[in-house]
Amino acid sequence: MVNYRYLGNSGFKVTEITYGNWVTHASQVENDAAIATVHKALDLGITSFDTADAYANTAAESILGEALKGQRRESLEIFTKVYWPTGPKGANDTGLSRKHIFESINGSLDRLGLDYVDLYQAHRYDYETPIEETMQAFADIVRQGKALYIGVSEWTAEQLREGHALAKQMNFQLVSNQPQYSALWRVIENKVVPTSEGLGMSQIVWSPMAQGVLSGKYLPGQPVPAGSRATDDKSGAQFIKRFLGDDVLEAVQKLKPLAEQAGLTMPQLAIAWVLQNKNVAAALVGASRPEQLEDSVKASGVTLDADLLEAMDAALAPVAVTDPEETYSVSPKTRV
Fold this sequence. Notes:
By secondary structure, the protein is of the alpha/beta class. It has helices spanning 31-43, 59-68, 98-112, 131-143, 157-169, 192-199, 237-240, 246-253, 256-262, 266-275, 290-296, 306-316; strands spanning 4-6, 13-15, 17-20, 48-50, 77-82, 117-122, 147-152, 174-177, 202-205, 280-285. The strands form 2 sheets. The protein has an 8-stranded parallel barrel with strand order 3-4-5-6-7-8-9-10, surrounded by 5 helices. Strands 1-2 form a two-stranded antiparallel ribbon. Helix 4 links the parallel strand 6 (117-122) and strand 7. The longest helix is centred in the N-terminal third of the chain and has 15 residues, at 98-112. It starts with a strand and ends in a 20-residue tail after the last helix.
């Protein structure tokens, strides 16, 4: 079964392996397969599910809602997000304005078939909307009972401090941030993680396997595998490109004997690695087939010894991205 961790300084627990449906539902896999994978997640002890209104232009939320129909609501932790364009992508169909936030939460609840979500997240920082407006809208949504907790995604340390202070003034709290984090992408370690620890916020990290590169299936000097994420623009091919250089792939191959030494598969090693960071409450994993989840959940509860962690650092140090300035490029400066 999957272990639970507290989300920030709250009393709210989430499964440290959380199912995310970013590039799978209504995109990479057919609906029946997507529903079967959600049911497999439940069978394996995953009760936390992450989605967003923008995934497959709202369709991913609908499929998750269908897959969870009939489940005991109190036994689930459902996360969704707001920021990116949805619908016809009109002038107010994006961002963190009060108008877009309220229309988005109502749409998400309808598609998910829920009265409330457990965690509602700002999918990016909105430079065009005053942060006071955004945080007031979140405060009102919490008071209306449409979301129990509020989080953000890919905010910088400075943005986290400002948002957290405003939330406190408005009598709610930010409990989480959702950044990209893996043994190859470590940009949050220098500023975001220490800031979050001080504020009482956790990380819910996406792409712990670096878009699948840390699975070891991409080989230096070889074509990418047919049917893999790297070949499918709908499945995040643009995100994986940065990790497909031969220098990166050669470094990743050095992890294979380390995984074997630990009695883990390469995906398990990658997921277990992010979970060694105590500020990480959950690692988001997706799956196009139910059996992939059977492998992923075995990373829950794994402790990697210091020598192994040191060996991993040594293998990946030449290619791992650690510059905290990379965080500033994630949120668009305009909504266009």
